[in-house]
Target: Membrane-associated proteins in eicosanoid and glutathione metabolism
Amino acid sequence: MVANYSLYSLPATVLVAYYPYFYKSFLVTKQTGNWNNINPRENVNKAERQMTQEAWRKAKRCEAAHQNGLETFPIFATAVIAANVTGVPTLYLNALSTSYVVSRIIYNSIYINNESAKVANFRSLVWAASMGISFSLYILAAKRSSKR
Model:
């Protein structure tokens, strides 16, 4: 019997989604020596003049990667839960949930570190693949549910 690790992918995905936020905080603090915790969502915008343009653009991309991670998490999380509840085989659960986490790590890395249009297109393909993984879990769950 294979152990089911798919539910561990949920907190892992949260960590992956928040990594860009903490990296952005590091960039702003390193460049400005300051972090305004009263209104932290405005830190990057307010720090633009104090940061190098390269660091500021990277911090903005960190914000976008973080936001995308938050937007896609509920889709993935409900897919994992649905697949678990309906009894999708563990092998599929583990493979797909691990693939999702890896795809999100790749997505973040590309988003944060890239300024090329060609590489940005690849980032979109990685995003589409991660969404495909979530939808695969939904489809597997639906098939299992209809067999009951």
